[in-house]
Amino acid sequence: MSGPGRSMLEGLQERAKELHCLYRVHAICGRVEAPLDEVFREVVAIIPVGWQHPPDCTVRITVGTSVYGTPGAEPTPWVLSAPIRVQGEVAGQIEVFYRRAHPPADEGPFLREERKLVDTIAELLGQLLLHRQLVSSIRRVDASGRPVPAESGDWWVIVDFLRQIDRPGYVKIARRMLNYLCWNGIEEAQRLLPRFTGSWSGPGGPEEPTDENRPMVRRNLDVLLKVAEEVFEIAPRHLVPAEILASIQKWIKDDRSGFLIEAVENQGTSLTDLAQALSRFHHAALNDHELSRSLQVDLRVALARRFLTDHLQFIGVAKSYIEVSDFQELTRRIICPPGSHGKVGGKSSGLFLAVQIVRKSEEYAETLKEIRIPKTWYVTSDGVLDFIEYNHLEDLYDRKYLEIDQVRREYPHIIQVFKNSQFSPEIVKGLSLALDDFEERPIIVRSSSLLEDRVGAAFSGKYKSLFLANQGPKKERLAALMDAISEVYASIFGPDPIEYRAERGLLDVHEEMGIMIQEVVGSRVGRYFLPTFAGVAFSNNEFRWSARIRREDGLIRLVPGLGTRAVDRVGDDYPVLLAPGQPALRVNVTTDEIARYSPRRIDLINLETGRFETVDVESFLAETGGSLPGVEEIVSLLEEGRVHRPYMVDWERQARDLVVTFNGLVTGTPFVTRIRSLLRLLSEKLGGPVDIEFASDGRDLYLLQCRPQSFSVEAQATPIPPDVPPERVVFTANRFVSNGKVPHATHVVYVDPEGYASMGDPESLRRVGRAVGRLNKTLPKHQFVLMGPGRWGSRGDIKLGVPVTYSDINNASVLIEVARRRGNYVPDLSFGTHFFQDLVEASIRYLPLFPDDPGIVFNEAFFLGSPNALADLAPDFADLSRTVRVIDVPAATGGLVLNVVMNADLDRALAFLAPPPSEAERAAERRRVAAGGTAPSPPEDHSRWRAQMAERIAAEADADRYGVRAIWLVGSSKNGTAGPASDVDLLVHAEDDPAKRACLAAWLEGWSLCLSETNFIRTGVRTEGLLDVHFVSDADVAHGADWAAKVGALTDAARPLALPKKGRAQAAR
Amino acid sequence: MKSPFNPFEMAQAQFDKAADVLGLDAPSRDLLRFPLREYHFSIPVRMDDGTTKVFRGFRVQHNDARGPSKGGIRFHPQETVDTVRALAMWMTWKCSVVDIPLGGGKGGVICDPHNLSQREQEGICRGWIRQIAKNVGPVNDVPAPDVMTSPQHMLWMLDEFETIHGGKYPGFITGKPLGMGGSLGRTEATGYGVVFTLREALKQLGIPIDKTRAAVQGFGNVSQYAVRLYQQLGGKVVCVSSWDQADQTSYTFRKLDGVDPDALLGIADRFGGIDKEKAAKLGYGVLPGSAWIEQDVDILIPAALENQITGETARKIKPSVKVIAEGANGPTTPDADKVLQERGIFVIPDFLANAGGVTCSYFEQVQCNQNYYWELDEVLGKLDTKMTSAFHAVSELAAKRKLYMRDAAYVISVSRVAKACKDRGWV
Predict the structure, then answer these.
(1) Residue A741 is assigned to a structural domain of this protein
(2) Is A8 a member of any domain?
(3) Which CATH class is domain B186-353?
(4) Which of A445-459, A756-770, B208-222 has the highest mean pLDDT?
(5) Which residues pair with A814 in a beta bridge?
(6) Among B70, B94, B106, B322, the one annotated catalytic
(7) pTM value?
(8) Are A825 and B2 inside 8 Å of each other by CB?
(9) CA count, 13 A, side-chain hemisphere, A708
(10) What is the number of alpha carbons within 13 Å of residue A367 lying toward its C-beta?
């Protein structure tokens, strides 16, 4: 190589040498504990490598009277020197010599870059000297521990030193001292206060109209210095030296954290810069405990906002537990696009905070000290935006507004497009680092969306989580990881999350999704990798299978292997349920129940195929032969009708007789105590019930996730109206009542206990179940009450309760089990055991009734005497009319509806007839629900349907016939806040022709009635017409008067709707 | 409103019917319509939370003229003394029909184990024994596990009993695990018992068993052993049905050249739920759950649930069917009985056909009392002898008195008990 190519290469080599040199110097200076002499000697030795001719290069550093030099460092004519300044004063110098002549360059034989290098090193050394001086002066005092009169002058040493080397700092400290004295009510100080106006620099002082005005500042400074001196004369008269000293130390540290405050306060700072600032804070050996309380909180809050969430309640807790150094730890595992302003997302934040709470709380410290968390890396929430931008996928953003069927159809293509897209180089680099950290341990890629985990909108399982075996060459592992992340990203556009968001009114929120890459907890067993057990736990037990279990006893869903089976409902499998407050009360008690309702399958990672798989427990145990760590804690041997601990098991031969019971875990290990303590601690600190995920490798317990246990406004205690006239009471209850309300039910499905008991053959009993299933599909959704004897969904003896599955009852608003006395016993209730989780997820209430209890009202005449609509609604089940009664409440009562209010605090429930609510009441209800931040139950998207209908109306508005010029959608349907009874507000711009107007009005009225009827079928809510049409004239539009003001308004603008072709041309006018 | 169902009244009505056939005298009727003795007692238990709860316990000894009372202990929240009385009476007849020297009893505690920890349940078991230790025992009254009680409960009870009486009395309770005084052959007993009676019935009807084909409902413990023994004897089972937990329905698995119970067991869960995909691969036809009854076979063995052969389903039974052996409890409704009687199908009634279980319990007790335990062959051999002679006694009576088999079984068991009471000079 020759010519320019060669010199370019040389140039690059030089830059590399210089950089290397600078890094080394930086590193040496960062060694806080090393003596200065040693630091300088090392710096001197390292400098020559940065120069063009190292063998010829000698260096000398002079600081005060000390001189440090490379061997044979003597002055020569070829020298490059730079002064070392401390606070502007020259404190020494660096000299770099060449022993002999070299070809001339930019500055003698030296390069321009070498000049920069020597200056930079001098600056670094200056900072080092300043730092050391400060530290030593503070140390002198620190070392004394408590204040001693003999050393009372020490604070003065610091102040004096500050005054000499850092006047702005000196003035600042003086100002804070003055404030401090004033707050302590020192009169002298208060007198001084008016004179201490203005500041060292920056705007604000009344005497400083501009900060450019140097003479003014100078004069001001003199005054300030004088006042400052007076302050420090006053201080010792009122404060003991120790107090002065402590305050000054704190303020100096505050001052030194300035860069960090600046970085976090400035919203423009990218995460990368923030991470650097945090690292500097860390390397400067600063600790946020040493800062003043206000600054400490300020920093923590600001950092929480930048990295975690804007959620105020969350931050309120986070600031007490997450320290600045914790954020620094966090940044070491954050992957973000350049210039990122993302956050780590809900799931990651929740876990991060929970871990800090567990680590830093004194409560339960003994029990919880061994709780661990898996190694976790984070991709920030704007990673997905970066991904979309990098691959030009911006078109996707409006996909979420499509019809759900279309979303469903397109989703597979979106996945393909995502999987064939690239990540930006920064992200690839970050992921590569993460993989180096994880090595070849299986990992899970989880979504950590900003919407996920918000109170009331837990997207539990809505977005994907993918397991990766993470085995083999790094290139393949990286490809697999990127593939998985793109698939998780694609799930933002999946039909389920879109539908869920639409239901919750979250569709218009811009979805950003962080990614959490977590090491999978577990161990390798043969060709598999899996945790010994995993599960979820809840603070509140909404699933009490025994009356002895209290709500606060909590709930654990436990499975062998990966926790996926505990989180998701798996239909044909049964996670083991435990109440941590009452671990001895198990759901399944008899040997048969234990065997039948135990987990049968196990989720795990097959390291050979690299896939997530589901395997039979039986074949897994036979294959792995009990080598899973701690397996004897989770399985029991089923032998001759007994369930006992597996001693001396022949795993292969007896695999069929092993059932997963977790008996050993519950009775022989601190597991339950730990989970109970975790739940208590976290719910206490987070101020509400929580929901956690955990896993264990058979040795340690790992916390995987923590978030608020989802609840909704409807689940809060409802006041019981005191003044319901007796004739309107349908029933009352006073045992095992949970919270909730069922407003305005229009139908009751009542399975008569007597009729049911008198049916002999199982086929008829099953038909009752099928009839209920049919009614469930026919009746208005979430507007009917389902009541029946004993145990709904009974798995065993169907005489004990109507045999239904969850899909047969999923549209009911409340499920009521009636325990009528039979002979001299009262049948046992199931407490909703069979599909409890589904009931909770769908906001279906559960209530047990004991009509024969003293003081209980049960209006049997209402149930048996009202006309039975079964034959009309389900003619082919008409023969069951004696047993299955369907009551159309308004028809039977002359227009009343049924309200059920339930209050767990009072342990009372009341069902009563009342007139349907007026529109004003409905509106108030909606406001209340909206204020609670949750969508109304039923989770239907009323807005989207209304908006679509409005679009159809507009598309059919015949301009010629009706004179329509434009139609806009306004109000709740446009804003996505419509409820089941909301109007559709249309703004119609039409010609001022009375005949056409009348025609138009009639046409719209037709639509209105038709939509109202459709809405009733959809929601069970009756309205008198659904359209609310506001006509605007040409003049209105021209002047933006009246409703027309909404057109093109800056806020809450009306949304134009497309008219038929011809009409559109006019509207565009 | 109609009066609620009372199981004891129903049991009495059944007894009255048999007594009428026998022409039983009034004092005997009076004695047998009611239990000899009833014990009602309270069991205080210290609960896990430190409080004390009192549970109500019962023991009903219906009749012990032929030997110590025998019957289970139930834990049930809806327990009523009338249920216990009815079941105790039923036990008397059940022991009598197979002619074992035991009477009938039943007991229970009103409680729901779902609301109790293991420790609390142990407290109930031990408390139950403390209240009645003087009135039960290997020569008085012998309990066994029943609804919601397991061998574990029995061992707690046995331990408490032996502590009170200061000795080892394994014969006090049956249903114990092997090594703790349990008997071999218990798993096989009921299924084998069904086939022993079936074999005798075919012999009597002059049908060679190796020319017969059978359809079996269920694939649980009873069915599995019945299928095995029947096929060993040369018969051919063309189908079994089983419950599918995932689909919440049952299916019939058919193989016309004979099902292989081992192969099916290999693709079934521990409750006998057969995997329908795997079964199809093995060449089984997967039919609706009710299809078992409509097969072109000689023998039907309902061995799953009660009320399976109804007036309606009985009509689907093919003309080829000659024998029904009731492995399950109460598989045939009274309506269906009429149809079967009309069609002349030979029915081996449930409490004869499935009495292998109680016979094996008796063997367990015998072995315990002599403290010498038999090998499996010996247990099964003795079971064969007992079942065979029990069958012949019933069928002879049926033939002699022109009775339906079900009625004959009932009549013979009542007559044996009534005779014992007379012999003792009670009535």
Answers:
(1) yes
(2) no
(3) alpha beta
(4) B208-222
(5) A785, A845
(6) B106
(7) 0.68
(8) no
(9) 19
(10) 16
